[in-house]
Design goal:
Chains A, B: Its EC number is 4.2.3.1. The structure is a homodimer of 415-residue chains. By secondary structure, chain A is of the alpha/beta class. Chain A is 31% helix and 15% strand. In chain A, β7, α3 and β8 form a beta-alpha-beta unit.
Chain lengths: 415, 415
C-alpha cells in the first residue's frame, strides 16, 4: 500500500509486535489495540514499525545531520504535518551532578518544541497515520502534554480534535486546548474510558492515545522519539552517551530513544548503545515494580504525587524491553527529591516540569554506569505548564448523547 | 580593554550613538543612560555597538551556518552565558495571508528559546556585559518576557536578580521569576522608576532595562537580535525576504533585525535588505505617531490594550531609524484584529502571545511590498504566558529601606 504515501523516502514496511512471539501486520491501518493475535486479558503487547534496514542509503548521524537525513528510518510523514519539530539543544548542567563529577551532564531541552514538550515528536507520526487513514477527528485522552500537542498538530493538519480531560485539568492546559481550537471534554477518571470507547467507534474518529488495559498506544508514535537518539548523536558528533535518563510514564519515549540507538548501531555507525535509565514517581512506579517482579506489566495504586507528567498506574511493555535490552536501570524518585531537583535545574536557567527535573534526582542516586561518556537527561516540558489552579470545569456524562449535545452546544461541533 | 574578554573572536570595538551627531564611547562600561554627550531633557539617543567590519573573516550566512559562525559580529559573550539560544525555525503560515497569496509567509517561532521568548537573545549580551563589569546583581524592570529571561540568564551565570514588577503581574510570570530563583518586587507603575534609580546606585547592582525617559536600554542588548536576521538568511539559504514584520515595543528587536541585514549587505553577501514593518497596538503606537510627526520619540497615553507585549507609551529612537532606513512601514493593530489573528495562528499550531499574532493582522493590511520574496512574521513568545489571573501580590513602597527589608524577609536576600 506504499502508493498512498506519495514520494516519501520512508523504508517503513510493517507493524510488528514486541511480545515474545513476533506477529506482523501491514503498516496501516494502525493496530490501535496492540497485537491482537497474542493478546490475553492480562497483557496486550505493543507494536512497533519495522523497516527495510538493508535498503538504507542516506542516513547519517554526524554533526549537522537532521530530520531530512533520517526519512528512511521514520514512518511516512504526511505533507500536511509540516510543523518543524525537534532539533532541540543539549544544555550543560554538569555543575548539578556531583555524584558524576568527571562527566558532562546535558539536558536535552524538549521544551523547545512547537507545543513545548517532547510529545510533538510522537504526534508528528500519529497525526500522519490519521491522515493516511482518512480520519476527520482526532480523539486523545490526556490532561497534559499529549493532549495539547495532538490538538496543535491536528488543527494545523485541518482535523478536528477532541481532548478527553478531567475537571481538574490546569488552566494552562485548558487554555492551550481551547487556543488550538480543539474541544475539551471534562470527564471523571472512571468515565474517560467509556467515552473514548464510544467515540472511537464513530466513523472518521481516530484515537491517538491508548485503548488497551496495559499500555500499547499508537504503533507509529514511539517512532518519533527515535529522532531524540539521532539528534543526540548528531550534536555529540558521534560521541556515545554513557546513559540517557528518561522520565517515564508509559515508556513510549524511553523505548523510542532505545530503538533509535539500536538502529544506528545496526547500521554500523556506533559500536554500543547508552544505558537507558527510567525515572518514575516513588508513589507509583509501575515499570520499577514490573521489572522487580519479572513481569511484562503491572498495575499499581494511584498514590499521590506532584510528578504529574509520569504519574501512570500501569507500565507499557515497551519500557520493560528498553531497560532490559540496554542493561538499563529503573529508578523511582520521591516528590521531595523531584522538587529539589526542579529548583536546582531552574537555577541553571531550565524551568521544567517537576516530573522532568526528577531525572536529575535519579542521576544523583545512580552509583555508576558501564561506560565512559556524557549523560543526557531528558527535559520533557516547560514549568509554565505546571498546574497552578484547576480549570474547575464541570464533569460531563460519558454517554454518546450527552457528549454529542455538549460538543454541539459548547463549540458548535456536530457529528 | 580587549584583554578582559578572553579569546573571543568578537570584533566589537566601541559604543556609538545613533543620534544625528555621532559620539563614540569605549565598548565598556555600558552607557546605560544613552548618549550623555547629546542628551537633552526631551531626547536621549541610544547607543549601539560598532565593529571592525574590515577585519571580518569567518562570517557566513548560507544554510547550516549558526551562532558559531557569527562571533566576529557580536559583542563578546561571557563564558558563563552558555545557554543555547536562538536557532528557531520558520513555520509556514501562507494559508493565513490571503492579501499576499503569491508569497510564502513564515513565522519565526521565538517561543523555541530557553525562556520561550526572543528576549533570551538580548539578555545573552546584557548579562555578558554585566559579568565583564563585575556585577553581582541584575536589576530589571519588567512584568513580561524581559524579566523572566533576565532572571534565567542571571541565575545560570551565578548572579542574583531583582525583577521590578507590578502587583498585577500574571501568575505565569510570577511563577517563572520565582522558579529561576529571582526576587520579584511588586511596585505600582509610578514607584518602579524611583525604585530602579535607587537600586542601580548600589555597588554591584546592574540594570539590564531602560533608565532614560525616551528608551535607550542597554547598548549590547539589540546586538543579540541581529542573529534573527542572520538565522533567517541561513534558513532561506540566501533568499532575501521582502519584509520582516515585527511586534514592536521599544524597538530593540526591530532595530537589531534591521542592523543584522545591513551588516550582511555591507559584507557583500546580499544586495538589498528587507523592508521592516513595525506592529503596535492601535490604542498606543508611539512609534507610529513619532514617524507621522517626524519626531525622534513621542509619548502617548496609556490606552487600554490586550497586546501587553508591545504596550509601551514611548518609542525608542532605534525603531525610527529601522523603519526610515529600510523604507519600512509602521502599522497599528486593534485588539479585535489582534485577537482574530491570535485564533487564526493557533489553528496553524502556533499558540502565541496576542501581541505577537498582531503581526499577521498587520501583514494583511499592507497592500504591497517593494520586492519579491517571502515575508517573515516575528512570533515572539508563547501563549502560555498570556495572563489568566493576576498574581494579586501587594505593592511594596519604593524607598530603599523598605526594599531592603522586603528582600531580606521574603527571600533572605541581603545587600
Amino acid at each position: 500500500m506504499t502508493h498512498i504515501f506519495g514520494n516519501t523516502a520512508s523504508l517503513a514496511k510493517t507493524q510488528r509486535s514486541l511480545g515474545p512471539e513476533v506477529f506482523e501486520y501491514p503498516l496501516l491501518p494502525a493496530q490501535l489495540h496492540g497485537c491482537i493475535q497474542s493478546a490475553t486479558p492480562d497483557i496486550q503487547y505493543p507494536l512497533e514499525v519495522d523497516y527495510d534496514y538493508a535498503a538504507v542509503r542516506q542516513a547519517t548521524f554526524r554533526r549537522g545531520s537532521n530530520w531530512s537525513n533520517w526519512e528512511e528510518l521514520l514512518p511516512p510523514r504526511h505533507p500536511k504535518v509540516n510543523m518543524p519539530v525537534g532539533n532541540t539543544p543539549l544544555v550543560d548542567v554538569s555543575a548539578l551532578a556531583p555524584a558524576h563529577a568527571a562527566r558532562r551532564v546535558l539536558v536535552k531541552d524538549e521544551s523547545r518544541n512547537p507545543t513545548w514538550s517532547h510529545k510533538d515528536r510522537l504526534n508528528t507520526f500519529t497525526v500522519s497515520a490519521a491522515l493516511y487513514e482518512n480520519a476527520q477527528t482526532i480523539i486523545v485522552a490526556s490532561s497534559g502534554n499529549h493532549g495539547v500537542s495532538a490538538a496543535a498538530m491536528a488543527s494545523r493538519a485541518g482535523l478536528s480534535c477532541i481532548v478527553l480531560t478531567m475537571p481538574e485539568v490546569s488552566e494552562a492546559f485548558r487554555d492551550m486546548i481551547l487556543g488550538y481550537g480543539a474541544y475539551p471534554i471534562y470527564l471523571s477518571a472512571d468515565d474517560r474510558w467509556p467515552a473514548m470507547r464510544q467515540l472511537q467507534e464513530l466513523p472518521g474518529f481516530y484515537p491517538v492515545s491508548n485503548l488497551t488495559k496495559t499500555h500499547t498506544g499508537h504503533p507509529w508514535g514511539p517512532e518519533g522519539y527515535k529522532t531524540i537518539a539521532y539528534e543526540i548523536l548528531a550534536e555529540l558528533d558521534g560521541e556515545i552517551p554513557a546513559a540517557v535518563v528518561v522520565p517515564t510514564g508509559y515508556g513510549e519515549m524511553l523505548y523510542g530513544i532505545y530503538k533509535g540507538f539500536t538502529e544506528v548501531q545496526r547500521l554500523g555507525h556506533i559500536n554500543r548503545i547508552p544505558q537507558l535509565v527510567s525515572v518514575e514517581p516513588a508513589a507509583r512506579g509501575p515499570l520499577y515494580h514490573a521489572l522487580k517482579a519479572g513481569r511484562a506489566a503491572v498495575t499499581v495504586a494511584a498514590g499521590p504525587t506532584v510528578q504529574s507528567g509520569t504519574a501512570t498506574t500501569v507500565n507499557g511493555y515497551r519500557s520493560v524491553v528498553a531497560i532490559r535490552e540496554s542493561r538499563g536501570i529503573a529508578m523511582v524518585v520521591t516528590d521531595e527529591a523531584a522538587r529539589a531537583a526542579h529548583r536546582a535545574m531552574a537555577q541553571q536557567g531550565l524551568w521544567q516540569e517537576i516530573s522532568s527535573s526528577a531525572a536529575l534526582a535519579a542521576l544523583n542516586m545512580v552509583e555508576r554506569f558501564e561506560n565512559d561518556g556524557p549523560i543526557v537527561l531528558m527535559g520533557c516540558s516547560t514549568g509554565l505548564k505546571e498546574p497552578t489552579k484547576p480549570a474547575q470545569a464541570h464533569a460531563i456524562a460519558p454517554d454518546i448523547a450527552s457528549l454529542r449535545a455538549y460538543l454541539k452546544t459548547e463549540f458548535g461541533f456536530e457529528f
